[in-house]
Amino acid sequence: MTTALAFPAVLELRQYTLRPGRRDELIELFERQFIETQEVLGISVIGLFRDARRTDRFVWIRGFPDMESRRKSLEAFYDGPYWERYSEAANATMLDSDNVLLLRPAPDSPPLMRSRYRGPLLAVTYAFGSKADAASFAGRGVRDLNAAYAHDGGSVAALFSVEDSPNTFPRLPVREGEHAAVALLDGVEPERLSLGHPKPAEITHLVPTARSNIQVATGGSPGDFDFLRGRWHVRHRKLRSRLTASNEWIEEAGTCRGFTLADGVVSVDEFDFPSSGIKGCSLRNLDRDAGRWTIHWTTNRSGRLLAPVRGGFDGDRGEFYGCDFEGDTPVFVRYVWSECKSEQPRWEQAFSVDGGAQWETNWSMVFGRGEC
Q: What is the pTM of this model?
């Protein structure tokens, strides 16, 4: 289930440099002792991550209602019994824990979501020469970054600017006096960032730990789409008008034939819509290292590949996300495959215009070997 996380007014992006080989030791301790013991004090433990590029880096995000609440909660935690008992073991894994940015959400930042992101998920820090430049970027960054990466299926998961209030808990140092913004980018390959403007000052590839509230949809394996092989009858149900609050549906029957290639890491299907003369084709490939499928769609009308969606499966349910346009409106796109192991697999497409907080399903398909 996808739900929005409570969006605190103040956040900490904490990046720790650890002693060689001790990251998993800290993560195990953290997930066992330092989640609920902070949350009971009003601290939101939002995300816990490994850095995919650095084996000595542990990254986490926590949040607070305001700066004064931050002071009170941190005093209660770091003067409390759990930190007293386990601090020595935690600190023994660390070389440096002072790489910390205090942040606040940008005005139009999308809400952070629980178990939604298709990945890769990147924390990207942009540095500016003045407070005014940083504020200007925070005010338009969501729009500009989404426009820059939409054709790749990328989007802004959240955008933050530096909180420049005095550090209310000086026992834990933070990076002060910096003019910066931090974007969480979803579905943007790291190498694409070098082409962007402004140039990132720092890029961290976030891989969520088991108990992180923020997760990335992986679960891609060779043969995931083997269930689609062969010939199918398909019942389509489509909204006549998208994103207009319409409830008028069109139903259409068609056929599909599916193939898997290259030992299951490529999947291709062809849909035939006899009533309209349209033929459409899905092209899917699995990035085995990332555990993630990329899916493109095209038709005989245009021959253009639409912007991809990316994701994977959990059991017989698959979720795939991307960015595209409906007319001139930028939309977040979701594909869902369900009941894939049954005799009637189902697929649906939905659009969101608010970063995934609300969805409009506009197309569904039910597959059957006989007439359906």
A: 0.65
